[in-house]
Each structure stands twice: as C-alpha cells, then as structure tokens.
Design brief:
alpha/beta, Rossmann fold, three-stranded antiparallel β-sheet, 9 helices, 12 strands, 30% helix, binds S-adenosylmethionine
C-alpha cells in the first residue's frame, strides 16, 4: 500500500476522534477550562521554565497540552494535520481564554507552511508512532529551533510498541518490530473500533498504521541534526494503561507489577541546538 494511503487512513481516524476526545473524561475539557493542566507531572519539571518563550507543539491534537504550556507563560503554536483537531484547538483557546495559534499541516510539510523559529519545540505522548521516518522528523525539529533553543519530548517507550497486547499468558511477548521498518509495524494495520479514550462510542474509521523507531535511532537522528542531548530518561511509570497487565500506583501512574526494573515504559529527552 502506498505511504499516502497509510497516512490517509490514520488521518480519517484522527479526524473522527477529535469530537469524541473533546467530550471525553479521558481528556477532561471541563477541568481544563477550570484551570487544570493536562501536562504529565514530569513534563514541567524536565522542561524547566517556559515563561516568555516561544513554543511550537508538533502533532498537537486539539491543543490541550499546547494551551497548558501557554498557561505556564509560553507563547504557543500548535501544529497538526487533522483539520478537525485544529478547529477544536482554536475553539478550546477561545472557550478557555488561553491564547494560542493553531495551524494545519502534515508534519514533514511543516517547514513549507510555517516560516518561523522557536525557543522550544515540544512533542507529547503518542506522536512518533504515527511517523514513518524518524530522521525526517528530526530534520523538522531542528529546522524550527532557534540557535540555543531546545527540543523537549516525553513519549511512550518504543519497547512498549513492540509488545503484543493479545497474549495475556505472555504479557512480555515481543511481536512487532522495535526498529524502524519501511512498512508499518503491522503492515495489515490495526483494526479497532474502540478509541483509547474508552468512551464506549464505536469508531467508523477503524484501520490504522504505526511505525516503530528504536530509542537509539531516535536519539542518533537528533544528534545527526546537531542537537546536543542534555538527558535521556527512561521511565518506569506510564501515563496511561498501555496494557491490561499494568497496575496503577499511589502516584496515579501505571506500573509493571512486581518488577518495575524489568521494562522502561516512557522516555524523555531535552536536546539543545547549540548556537
Ligand atoms: C495522540 S495525539 C498526540 C497528542 C497529545 N499527546 C495528546 O494526547 O493530545 C497524535 C496526533 O498526531 C497527529 N498526527 C499524526 N500523524 C501526523 C502527521 N503525519 N502530521 C501531522 N500530525 C500528525 C494526529 O492528528 C493526532 O492529533
């Protein structure tokens, strides 16, 4: 199947999810309007102060994380290829009174759509697995950074995306490519009418395609774009229940039961584009 068709299938799914997500408890637009921040706890700590900084959020979905950074003092721009997501992000900005600019663009095409440089490029959970080419992604990140600016990313660990969620008898069964491959991880695609926000609503656009990228491939792609890695953290906790066997801890995060030292669940990095 040609690359455009994978992307079109994914886009149809993302467009359809926006309205569902906007109304879901999982995302919590109501509490966001009331002043709550959707950022994961670790993100503000690892990012540091964003006060007075310009921030570009790649793959911003309907902009709740983007606007959470604005609440912390950044001047924010969010970018996503889903027209429904961008329309909802603009609405959320108006409804919450938090300023933000939102632009529709395919990630790899973004340098043709936006002619600006930023202090910070940010990407949050669940973004990289939709991209087929991690070196192309790193080029886009570097393109948008001012000298002295930095990338901050928190993501699901690529090892998670390689595990099978359909073998309860062997929860650590590695079933899918860990490394980047030309074809999607599952070339036949995933067919799922349940959205991760778990509202019970049935999706119509059910077939999607993901790509794996090894942690070494991601970090090396950033280094090749002359970004200097300040830290690379692998986290023993997960912000969402990626697999049924995960258990919720007192910290409100999801854990590997009994042996948290066996598997990283998320990773994060801050990488500076030196002047
Ligand atoms: C799970 S969301 C991640 C955002 C954020 N962490 C959240 O949960 O709201 C993934 C986003 O990536 C966007 N996306 C996927 N592939 C893309 C591409 N090739 N170019 C631009 N956006 C893309 C989708 O439209 C979706 O809004």
């Amino acid at each position: 199947m040609p690359m455009d068709e994978f992307k079109a299938a994914n886009l149809a799914m993302w467009d359809e999810t926006v309205d569902i997500h906007y109304r879901s408890d999982f995302y919590g637009v109501e509490r966001f309007r009331a002043g709550w921040s959707s950022l994961e706890l670790v993100e503000p700590d690892e990012m540091g102060s964003v006060e007075g900084k310009t921030l570009l959020h790649l793959q911003c979905h309907f902009g709740m994380d983007t606007l959470s950074w604005a609440r912390k003092g950044a001047t924010v721009t969010g970018l996503d290829y889903s027209p429904a997501a961008i329309e909802a992000a603009r609405r959320l900005s108006v409804e919450s009174g938090v300023p933000g600019r939102f632009l529709e663009s395919e990630l790899y095409d973004a340098p043709n759509v936006l002619d600006e440089k930023f202090d910070i490029v940010y990407t949050g959970i669940g973004a990289l697995c939709w991209l087929p080419d991690i070196r192309g992604w790193a080029k886009v990140v570097s393109h948008f950074l001012k000298p002295g600016g930095f990338l901050y990313i928190l993501e699901g660990h690529p090892m998670l995306w390689a595990l099978d969620d359909d073998t309860p008898e062997d929860p650590m069964h590695v079933a899918w490519p860990y490394f980047e491959t030309d074809q999607p991880q599952n070339p036949a695609g995933w067919d799922n009418d349940e959205d991760y926000a778990q509202t019970g609503e049935k999706m119509k656009n059910t077939r999607t395609y993901n790509w794996g990228h090894g942690l070494g491939e991601i970090v090396t792609a950033l280094i090749e774009e002359r970004l200097r890695i300040e830290f690379l953290h692998e986290h023993k906790t997960c912000a969402w229940q990626a697999f049924p066997w995960m258990v919720k801890g007192d910290d409100d995060m999801w854990h590997v039961p009994n042996h948290p030292e066996r598997l990283p669940l998320m990773w994060s990095t801050r990488a500076v584009k030196d002047a």
